[in-house]
Amino acid sequence: MQPPRPPSSSLPPLTWLRAFEASARHLSFTRAAAELNLTQSAISQHVRSLENFLGRELFIRKTRALELSEAGANYMPIVREAFDLIAAGTQAFTGDDQGRHLVLQCNMAFSVFWLSPRLPRLYERFPWLVLNIVTPIWDPERHASSAGTEIRFGRPNDMSAAAVRLTYDRFYPVCAPDYQDGAFDFGSATLLDCAGVTGSWGAWFKSQDLPFDRNHEINLASTYVIAMTAALNGAGMAMSHDTLAGGLLESGQLVRASDHSAELLENYFLMPPPSHASTPASRAFLEWLEGELPPV
Hints:
By secondary structure, this protein is α/β, with parallel strands linked by helices. Helix content is 41%, strand content 18%. It is built from ten helices and 13 strands. Strands 7, 8, 9, 10, 11 and 12 form a six-stranded mixed beta sheet that branches. It has a five-stranded mixed beta sheet with strand order 4-3-5-13-6. It has a two-stranded antiparallel ribbon with strand order 1-2.
């Protein structure tokens, strides 16, 4: 007598799925039984129960051979992916990864222009570290809880008491070396800027007590990545700051369009994990980060 088929909204028992996955991988009930330490008849019964549950045959049974049916071939990747996901989640939950993994939520421009060029040094020092970099543009609070460590861009008053200030930046205009043939004419230049920050073109002119032509349109981008990449490709002058522009200026990919700079109110802050959530990966990353950044 076959067991009653569970309601369609429920999941098949794990034992049935394990029997199917092993049988499909080996194309043999006998070898699947040996792997799972069950009898061949038990494996066959589990698979038959799963077929009854699904209402489809998963195997074509021959005298001395076993083949996947079309339904079985389609179902196998789903079951395999589910087992892989459970295994990975269990490994992370139990700490079997030995704390190698770190989810880093990081400001996008910082990730592109500061962090990425230095990653070879990080991996050379900690080759066991597995880094997952997440870069939300807006509303970082929404995703922060899922990150092990965070680097955020903003004003000091907007940060929590746990935030650690990483930089003290000054801002200034930059452009490609051959832009305007090096003439640096602000009146005729295409001006590029990042929306929503205080280090703007208007603030830069004001810091010098210079008039700013309000009719001169500013090309705004939602992130410094867009504005600075446009400048790198000769599209105009972008307002930038030390942390982002430093490496590009040193390599000669960008040049400063003026010697004047002004203090940037926003800066980069580290949101470290609480002590109880610290892992070998987070500790290694923070140790490396401290050595890479100049003292503040």
